[in-house]
Design a protein that fits this description.
64% helix, 147 residues, 0% strand, mainly alpha, elongated, 8 helices
Length: 147
């Protein structure tokens, strides 16, 4: 019954279709105009056949299998450096507490830049987090047409 084309669809199916269209757009299979047009049609779709018509000229989902595997590796490599972010985030709070505890001495606020420099000096930002590395690569591809 779910394979019949005139079955009504819900929000979950529309959202999945929009996600797949986004993946095809990111892979370069759709132009911006095509993506916007198909996204509008996916949002307004009421039956399964309305959604199926949007994907007739696109490869199936299985073509996108390698992408999730590549996304899981950077998240794993970014975990050891998470402590630096926590320490840098807590440092302003510690400076405020020390300011009030020790006779309102403003020099405690110098801890904020000092701790940041000590924690992050010499660390290449692309090595620090796989997500940032991915963003740099992605922006290079998009900006490649500007040269």
């Amino acid at each position: 019954m779910s394979d019949t084309p005139e079955v009504r669809i819900g929000t979950a199916e529309r959202e999945r279709a929009l996600q797949l269209l986004g993946e095809h757009f990111a892979a370069g299979r759709l132009t911006l105009a095509e993506f916007e047009e198909r996204s509008g049609k996916a949002s307004a779709a009421t039956t399964r056949s309305d959604l199926d018509a949007l994907f007739t000229d696109l490869p199936t989902e299985t073509a996108n299998v390698p992408a999730p595997a590549a996304e899981t590796a950077p998240a794993k490599s970014g975990l050891p450096d998470r402590w630096r972010d926590v320490v840098a985030g807590v440092t302003p709070l510690v400076a405020v507490v020390l300011f009030f505890v020790f006779d309102h001495n403003w020099l405690w606020f110098l801890l904020i830049p000092i701790v940041s420099v000590v924690l992050y000096a010499g660390i290449d930002q692309t090595d620090r987090s796989g997500d940032r590395k991915k963003k740099h690569k992605g922006s290079g591809k998009k900006g490649g047409g500007d040269a």
